[in-house]
């Protein structure tokens, strides 16, 4: 397992996987603060998502859907769920399907 310091170094070099993993660690990992810094996590996941990282795209969609660190925006959530689903992310496919079924964020 990589240290947080190593992930930070790789993330600064714009490594998409390191950006995703560091954001995940900051959001959900052991030793994380009781109140995660969602704007920082958003920045990491956004960079990784734009570079084509499917898990980052999924988690970025959840940030938009739940309004963590950004204003809640279902159209942006749907956009990122769609991108992740096209890369084979199964939970993104499920969330996208439920959104279409319920008309939540889509027509």
Overview features:
107 residues, mainly alpha, Serine Threonine Protein Phosphatase 5, Tetratricopeptide repeat, 6 helices
Strand content: under 5%
The residue fraction in helices comes out at 55-70%
Q: Briefly, what CATH class?
A: Mainly Alpha
Class based on secondary structure composition and strand pairing: mainly alpha
First and last CA, distance: 43 Å
Radius of gyration: 14 Å
Describe the biggest sheet?
Answer: none
Q: Could you state the CATH homologous superfamily?
A: Tetratricopeptide repeat domain
Query: What overall geometry do the principal axes of the alpha carbons give?
Result: globular
In short:
This protein has 107 residues and is an all-alpha fold.
Please characterize this protein's 3D structure:
The chain has about 110 residues and is mainly α. The protein has a single domain (about 5-100), classed as Serine Threonine Protein Phosphatase 5, Tetratricopeptide repeat (Alpha Horseshoe), CATH 1.25.40.10. It contains six helices and no strands. Helix 2 packs antiparallel against helix 3 and helix 3 (about 40-50) packs across helix 4.
């Amino acid at each position: 397992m990589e240290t947080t310091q190593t992930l930070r170094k790789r993330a600064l070099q714009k490594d998409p996987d390191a950006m995703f993993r560091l954001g995940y660690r900051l959001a959900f990992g052991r030793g994380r603060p009781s109140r995660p810094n969602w704007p920082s996590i958003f920045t990491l996941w956004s960079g990784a998502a734009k570079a084509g990282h499917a898990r980052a795209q999924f988690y970025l969609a959840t940030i938009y859907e739940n309004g963590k660190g950004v204003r809640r925006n279902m159209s942006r959530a749907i956009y990122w769920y769609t991108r992740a689903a096209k890369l084979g992310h199964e939970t993104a496919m499920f969330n996208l399907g439920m959104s279409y079924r319920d008309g939540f964020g889509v027509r």
